[in-house]
Specification:
Organism: Brevibacillus panacihumi W25
Number of strands: 11
Structural class: alpha+beta
Number of domains: 2
Pfam families: APH
Largest sheet: 6 strands, antiparallel
CATH architecture of the largest domain: Alpha-Beta Complex
Keywords: Membrane, Transferase, Transmembrane, Transmembrane helix
Distance between the termini: 23 Å
Protein name: Aminoglycoside phosphotransferase
CATH topology of the largest domain: Aminoglycoside 3'-phosphotransferase, Chain: A, domain 2
Radius of gyration: 21 Å
CATH superfamily of the largest domain: Aminoglycoside phosphotransferase (APH), C-terminal lobe
Shape: globular
InterPro entries: Aminoglycoside_PTrfase, Kinase-like_dom_sf
Length: about 350
Amino acid sequence: MAKRGTCDRKGTGRAARSFWEKPDKQEVGINVSDATNEAGGLLDGIPMLRNRYRLERIHRGYSSDHKYMVNDHEGNPQYVLRTYSIQKEKDKENEFKMLQRMEEIGVRCTKPIESGVLPSLGLGYMIVSYIEGEEASEALPFLAEKEQYDIGVQAGLELRKMHQIPCTDDDVGAWHERMTAKYDRNRAEYAKCGIAIEEESRLLSFIDGNLHLMKNRPNLFQHDDYHVGNLIVKDGAFSGVIDFNRYDWGDPIHEFVKAGMFSAEVSVPFCMGQIRGYHDCNEPGDEFWRLYSLYLAMTLVSSVVWILRVRPEELDSMMGKIRKVLDDHDHFERIVPKWYRK
């Protein structure tokens, strides 16, 4: 029987300022102006909310969903409301069911409250519980390194719980087939986009030489956006996970890509804790790092394609993150990033 490790903090390194900006917010009551007709329609159309709450629009993130804080009339947050095109209802039903499953297995995350459709508005909606606290991206830089590390350990443990759930949908193809096809599409788009990653030949050669590692990897539940912007911290401790709208199925190691791409900019101690916590407070093995570095390298290519499609004005920022990852891995001459200390 393997001996459990101890989650002692070692070599935690730097803690950088968050790259996320604070949201613009707009609060509306029951008597709304023309500019807030959707909010008024939601308050009228959802019986649970009618005459009891106020909606505060959250302008944040890249999702096409609209998000609202649901406050009582004294301004205290009670729930979070997401609305989306009614054409997405089937996918959102599945997301709601996955949140129910998370609750069943004890994951500390937003709890599903209610979902439905509003045909008159052409919208579906989902109401989930509000987790008190602030995003880890904002809280971590102001905490001691040990607190950052301990929050990371808890985040890793919660992620491990999620990965208990296997894919039971026969229509979901093998992980390596789906990922290889996706990478081929992204690489083709990247080749004609007019933007070049520094020393791209080394990057692409590393990817090509390691794609075979994805064969026979499992199809398990993936949050698929697990980073410090989707984790909540309260009073210096981990509080919960939010935003499951990108969930998918595949290799659980792929979840750690966001640690290297984004979370490490905010808190290296957190990232180290997340990785060790996930591995029962032991050091991860060579297989983890080989797959982690492969997925991170593939993400650099897809990130260029994605940012040009979605937020081209943020290209310079994205290229800065890509250069940082390349430096962390010496252009993938090393599979363990420089910021990780054993």
